[in-house]
Every structure is written in structure tokens, then in C-alpha cells.
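Repro:
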Amino acid sequence: MKIPNTSASSGFTLIEVLVALAILSIALTAIIKATAQNVKDSVYLQNKAIANWVGTEIVNEMRAGIIKPPLQPDTLDVKTNILGQNWVSKAYYIQSPNPHIRELHVDIFPRMNSKKMMQLTSYMYAPTQN
């Protein structure tokens, strides 16, 4: 009768399991961090796209005459609600080298008293007034 060898192991040791868990936890932490950064970047890019739409809308409405342009050096404050978000814009003119061209700047803010999200610049024809 043969006695089975009890010294040979047929499974993993505790050290092997702990090393595998450490490697797995490092890999999962990296994946979670990358996913969180991706979500944060997606929200930022979404807000930049919306800010671009807001600024473009204001520039186009000023070109079409729907919004009266601000008198220099005044600023025109416009509040807009797009996609359920409130946006604040400030439009103002800067003197251009050509007296027939006005340089229009539109600063877009995600909310009042916050950091500027975007600035758009456009040029409009300004006929001389006699």
C-alpha cells in the first residue's frame, strides 16, 4: 500500500494569491482612473461645444440686427439657456485698424461670476456715418 505524498501542494500558496491580488488591484486602479479622466474630459468638451454655439448665436444675431450692438466702450450682457444650462455672454467692440471694420469680441461664461469658458472674435462692416 502506497501512502500519498502530503508534502506536494496542488494549489496556490498564500503569497502567490497576495501577489496576484496586488497586481490585479494596480491594474484596476489604473483602469478606473483612466475612465474617470475620460468622463471629465467629455464633460469639458461638451461645455466648450455649447459655449461655441452660444457665442456663434450671439454673433449671428448681431449680424442679422436682432441684437443691437453695444456702443463703444460699453458691453452687452446676454443671458442664454441652451440644453438646460444657463450661459452668460459679454459682447464688446475693439477698435480695428480699418475704420470700416469693427472687431467684435464675445466672452462666454457658464454662469455669472465664473471663469471665462471661451472667447469668440468676429469682424463686422461698419459704414462711416456722415
